[in-house]
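re: ur msg from earlier - yeah i can do the nicotinamide-adenine-dinucleotide complex, just paste it... oh wait u already did. ok heres what im feeding in:
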Amino acid sequence: MVYKIGIIGAGVIGRLRARTIHANPKTQLTAVFDPDQAAATRAVSGSAIPVTTLETFFEQPLDAVIISSPVHLHAEASLEAFRRGLHVLCEKPMANTVDGCRQMVAAAVAADRVLAVGFNQRLLPSMQYIREILDAGTIGEIDHIRLFGGHDGLANFRADWQYRVPESGGGATMDIGIHMADFGRYFLGDITEVYAVTSERTWQLPGSEDNAIAIFRNPEGIPASYHATWNEWAGFRVAVEVYGRLGMVRGSYGPMRNTLITHERPGARRHTTRKFYPEVILRERLQSWEVTTQMSFAEELATFLLRIEGTTGGALADGHDGLRSVEVAYAMRESSAAHQVIQLPPLGPMR
Ligand SMILES: NC(=O)c1ccc[n+]([C@@H]2O[C@H](COP(=O)([O-])OP(=O)(O)OC[C@H]3O[C@@H](n4cnc5c(N)ncnc54)[C@H](O)[C@@H]3O)[C@@H](O)[C@H]2O)c1
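and the outut:
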């Protein structure tokens, strides 16, 4: 079967998504909606048509939609897609409010359709290496993890909705930090306890924190330290470290790299393995970061199709992953304001 896919929002990410659909023999790009006619036209390929109204978009024959519009528009577009019986792959953050995310989950369940969220950083080679090491039990039971994501702030944004509340839903926690909250769930399991200190001292944008430093815990009490920042002056960097009784594994992007340190028991001789991904670094030097992102989008699209066909598991984030990451972002601000730990009820995977 060839899946007819439409795109809502044809900016930088929408255009990359369009290329990914074009490159997959199991998908056909049917329509691209963007109120900016030039943007919609730039993204189309093959027989796809560019449209500038949602009504015309949804009149096209579609099996699924990819939503890559500004975040405050995700919920409304998703709800309409589910009403029409379509599957949805929505960019992160899933919505700019917790309520919006909950409505999307409820609509997906009511329509019995797949809701996936674009946490493509899970699919970066350095992060998949961590997943493999954890699945193999190489570092033993997890003791704690460290999550860091940062960039140098406002120069990275092209539009107000990307960093100003209410559209953005918050600052660093809803931007690069949303991937870090998701990594917490991906590597540690459900995040059910949040304590945080957030601040707006650098960019001084009310409601858009430029730093969030937090401790999360999963239901077994295993902690993660978290730092999302908009004043990482050296530039974009993401790093995850997982520590176990038998060693540690570290994965980063900016640059893509892994370190694995293992020992048979604490105190015994250590073995270190390093991975450097020169092909990724060279490709990004010669072309751009977009190549790495597009590779992750290609894998995400392939797993989205498998999910539609009924396969569960894998690295694709579902609606509950998207919801929990936004709940965690909001909980961090609440915790910081109240100087209190915020409890979140356990939230398993979507069925
Ligand atoms: N997964 C990732 O790596 C990643 C990276 C960056 C951004 N994102 C997410 O992707 C989404 C799009 O970000 P972007 O960087 O492409 O932004 P962008 O500004 O480049 O593109 C947004 C597009 O949406 C269009 N738009 C405006 N109003 C619309 C509406 N009512 N309906 C549909 N489209 C509308 C704009 O005309 C524009 O073309 C956001 O949710 C963002 O958070 C994801």
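cool cool. The chain has a mean pLDDT of 96. ping me if u need the other ligands too
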